[in-house]
Amino acid sequence: MESKFADINLSAVAGAIADPARARMLCLLLDGRARTATELAAAADIGASTASSHFQRLREQGLVDMAVQGKHRYYRLANGEVGHALEALLVVAGADRVPFKPNTPTALRDARTCYDHMAGTLAVRVHDAMVARQWLAQDGRDYVLTPLGEASMAQIGVDVAQARQRRRRFACACLDWSERRSHLGGALGAALLDALMQRGWITKDLDSRALSVTRKGARQFPAFFGMPDAYADDGLMQGDAHAAA
Question: Using CA atoms in the order 132, 138, 141, 145, what is the torsion angle rounded to 10 degrees?
Fold first, then answer.
């Protein structure tokens, strides 16, 4: 941004935030989760056509991005800098954020299959851990597996070579419909789910898409991915019946 245009650009961004409906929608996105246009319009108490013009204004100013997942369009903050700026403005305003409350059934929200890969709270944590540990690197709209990531996947039996040969995207962010954040999709996501099941870290429910973390998995997930050891407390571990040796 050139300094001589900084005041003009700042004014344009401030104007986009200043509208009460747009400000409300931006605040709802501060938790890092995505929302549908319908959800954001309802929260802002405006109609769909009015919301559409607001979304266009927010996107033009680089405040939000749109992600398409199947038939749905989701909106989320464009980047961390937008989030930091909004947080600072909320401090000045003395306002509190409204927490996200998913309405997905608990078992499916914790861990489930999404087509042939893992979804839910656990899958989002795994995705975030892989990015944080630099096992995955952004490549446009997809991911590449770094040498460190490839070595790590080999440790738990993920067949990376076979995943690369499949006629589909190798690795990509798949927006989780309960968490509204990304989990790992593509051929690598499918290969990872297979490996975790083969190692006995998770089991699949016979009557639904729900997955359960075994006792073995409750020990190994935090150790391998560097995630908080909180499965017994937050419901991700589903009892002794699924315990693995």
Answer: -90
- Winning range, highest mean pLDDT, from 4-8, 10-14, 150-154, 226-230: 150-154
How is the chain split into domains, by residue range? 6-93, 106-242
Taking only the tens place, the pLDDT of each residue in 46-86 is: 988 898 899 999 999 999 999 887 777 889 898 878 887 88
Lowest-confidence region among 30-34, 75-79, 108-112, 182-186? 30-34
CATH topology of domain 6-93: Arc Repressor Mutant, subunit A (1.10.10)
The residue whose two tokens read 């699924």 is: 242
- CA 40, CA 105: separation in Å to the nearest integer? 22
Quick one: tokens of 22?
């747009």
State whether the Cα torsion 132-213-187-147 is positive or negative: positive
Task: Give CA separation, 173 vs 37, 69, 100, 177, in Å.
Answer: 20, 11, 21, 12
pLDDT exceeds cutoff 80 at 231: no
Q: Look up residue 232 and give its two tokens.
A: 């017994």
How far apart are the C-alpha atoms of 92 and 94, rounded to whole Å?
A: 5
